[in-house]
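Go through this:
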Amino acid sequence: MVQNIGNRLIQTISHQAEKAGYFCIAENISSNQKVHELRRGFKRLRALLRFFKEIPDSPAIQLNEDIRNFGKLLAPLRESAVNVELFEKEISLNKLLPERKIRNARELLVQQNKLLVERGFLENNLNNTIRTFFDGFESILTKKGSEFPSRVQLFREVSKSYLKSNSVYHQLPASPHPEELHELRKKLKRLWYQFDFIRFLHPRYFKMKTDQLNKITDQLGDDHDLHVFIEDAVAERRDFNDEEMLILTNQVEHLRQLNQQKLQLRLKQFFAAPPSEFDQKLERFFKL
């Protein structure tokens, strides 16, 4: 079982690395979509590379850090693209705001995104740097003498991910700050990707759990996107006066409140099992 899980893990990581390389050079995909796919793949890779944490001198540790740094470089580009999407979806039809100002603000957002992508992904050659990084990724991870995680180490990592997520959730105040919800999202994203990898151990249970996490992390992502959007809008203003900015802020906060009402129930359902009960299930699935 150890060898089977180890091989499966390497194959899954290698597949994600190949996908990252592909998105860097694909010609039929927009740069914004490439950035989105890369960041999503980076999060999955980092969640899987954490299975190597307990292995001394594993190359996975440095690979994880390098991928994290790439993700940080791409974050402002992705946020600018999401700002455009949110503006078009939620703000562009607001009848309380002047059409001219809406049109001008949209054009400014599009121009800002285009500039960021050109400078931060294409002109600085980051796309090729990332592609080169993932060339031979598997050979680095599996270099001679490198160890694969044992099933006990896999169990411990998933157990820690659940425990940390559970702790962050139960420490949330009644009215959590957007950054506190964002921290919970990062923990649950990691858990989602780890569940998705080990779902073959118990397909029925982990399908239910990954479905729950998919909805929860999407909602947490929506909350963070709205928060980033309104912070950018307040900082840049884009010709909106104080009254118009108040209308804009109230609209975004209302969307966040509606989103969080559904979110809280789903979080409560997901964390119904305490960590000790979850660990007992996990031990049976891993046959420990």
User: Anything to note?
Assistant: Residues 150-287 form one domain. The two ends are 11 Å apart (CA to CA).
